[in-house]
Amino acid sequence: MNLFYTPDIQGKTYQLDEIESKHCVKVLRLKEEDIIHLIDGVGTLFKAKIIQAHPKRCTVECIESIKEFGKLNYELHIALAPTKNIDRTEWFLEKCTEIGIAEFTPLLCEHSERKVVKHDRLFKVITSAVKQSLKAYHPKLNEITKFKELVESDFKGDKFIAHCYPGKKKHLKEICQLNKDTLILIGPEGDFSPQEVQLAKVNNFVEISLGSSRLRTETAGVVACNIVSLSNQ
Questions:
Q1: 200-231 b/e with 16+ CB inside 10 Å = b?
Q2: d(CA 131, CA 136)
Q3: In this model, does residue 11 exceed pLDDT 90?
Q4: What CA–CA distances, in Å, run from 70 to 39, 110, 150, 210?
Q5: Which of 23, 74, 198, 220 is most buried (CB neighbours < 10 A)?
């Protein structure tokens, strides 16, 4: 299936943007009458026929649509402190998009190694993973957000914070609930500060474990995403 991301699609005919047109006509070498599929990023999958195979302005005609294609029974929001090596954060985003994530927030913490991210670059990573994994929903990418601002924001669902400090913590798989929207906080390589953990607890975040191993930030994010996904199957 050749899948194209078309967030502004409206009406029966649609013109792919220049990047998608080039990929369609020059890279994939598709031509008039060939069938492709489009996604709007909010749940609709379109079946379309190419009616003008122009390398800069490829035009298609929508012939069928499926709403809520691949819709999950939960929404997962992961807020993670971006890694010093941004490639690792991009890997995390790619894998979590493939597994199933609704929203991602780059988190600015006391021990953060990276305080700036290129939003456009991360968005492209997500879009590529959406197309590769044949998903009709494009995860929301938020701007980098301060820890305090995020934990004090309103969220209707289960709220968890994963950290490495000793103490009684249940494994995420023990308390992850079916069909429940979930927000999980993942800290930087130096972990959350004790003050941040306390602030999260005050705001009704539950402390969790992701296993006995000490995980890298990006690995912890993928593990958490996978646990929530498996718990909802």
A1: beeeebebbbbeeeebebbbbbbbbbbbbbeb
A2: 8
A3: no
A4: 11, 38, 28, 27
A5: 220
Pair (135, 55) in one structural domain: no
Q: What angle do CA 128, 140, 134 make, to 5 degrees?
A: 35
The pLDDT tens digits of the residues spanning 195-213 come to: 999 999 999 999 999 999 9
Please indicate, yes or no, if residue 210 is contained in any of the structural domains: yes
104 SS3 class: strand
**Token pair belonging to 80:** 């993670």
In a domain, 134, yes or no: yes
**Dist CA 224 CA 1 (whole Å):** 29
Q: What is the pLDDT of residue 10?
A: 87
Looking at the structure, tell me whether residues 104 and 166 fall in a common domain.
yes
Task: Quote the percentage of the chain above a pLDDT of 70.
Answer: 100
- Residues 210-229: tens digit of each pLDDT: 999 999 999 999 999 999 99
Domain that holds residue 19: 3-66
What is the reported pLDDT for 142? 98
What is the count of structural domains for the chain? 2
CA–CA gap between residue 29 and residue 15 (Å, rounded): 17
Closest C-alpha to 202, from 191, 190, 194: 194
What does the block give as tokens for 47? 């079946």
Are residues 139 and 212 located together in one domain of the fold?
yes
Scan for tokens 């939003």, then name that residue.
119
pLDDT value of residue 210: 96
Burial 177-186 (b: 16+ CB within 10 A, else e): eeebbbbbbb
